[in-house]
Amino acid sequence: MKDLQPGMTRRDAIKVGAVASAGLAFGQIPAFAHAAELISKPIPSSGEMIPVVGIGTARYFDARVTDEEMLVRREVIEQLPKLGGMLIDTAAGYGRGVAESMLGDLVADLGNRDQLFLATKVRKSSAEEGILEMEASFRKLKIDVIDLMQVHNLVGINEMLPIMREWKTDGRFRYIGASTSSDRQYPDFIAMMEAEDLDFIQVDYSLANRSAAERILPLAADRGMAILVNLPYGRGRLFRAVGDRPLPEWASEFGAKTWGQFFLKYIVSHPAVTCAIPGTYKMAYLEDNLGAATGELPVASLRMRMEEFYDAL
Q1: Has 94 been annotated as catalytic?
Q2: CATH of the domain at 144
Q3: What pTM does this model have?
Q4: Structural domain containing residue 289
């Protein structure tokens, strides 16, 4: 591994972590799938349990995917529930507008809808446009009930929430929420959280950006809102920061075998966080990510040590 550079990819980081800790047998069903169930947390508004690691589809389910790449994604969607996972997050606008359709086709073909928790988003400033987009989400996902509908990046929040509440009452949505992935929106997002009753929020949070922990995460806990975490790797910033370094020996205290698991375990060990949703499009990433939902999670003192470690890089 001496030829790896600090600008390494996720693939390289997985290899380094695996070598440093005896690793995982990627491409095979991982041992943890047979040894233990994934760590799960409750949705505060219902008590329903969901695994602490899911799948995000923002970057890799798009119109540029080849037939061969589609087979790789199909395997991920097929194996996710078999390995104990459940939640998949998407949006009408992801993948140049085709992520929902791709996901819907895969789930329908596999016939595993009842094993999944499907979350999507609406991003329209008017009620009329929002209704059309949400109706299209049902058609694209090929389902009658959406587990979680979220207002995307606060767009049309005042127009859409009343409609979403009606559709939830009618049984079309099981849960409703709102998302952001920008610190610039935090003041408005906090004001919205204080004013609205939601089942979920979605926010960016990672070792590389801990701003959400100052007010948003505690507020969600106080308000009884589940938290999905997007950008858990800081758009790759975390992998670039650690470069080709081996994992610190003390990472074994909470069972992290790779850098990806180190980063995810930090997130999901926050008491308020319900589920992290790293972008996942192939089995190596799925197995690695779900490994973060097994074994131990870092306690408060180890979380502080992880922060100090990252800040010193």
Answers
A1: yes
A2: 3.20.20.100
A3: 0.89
A4: 10-20+44-311
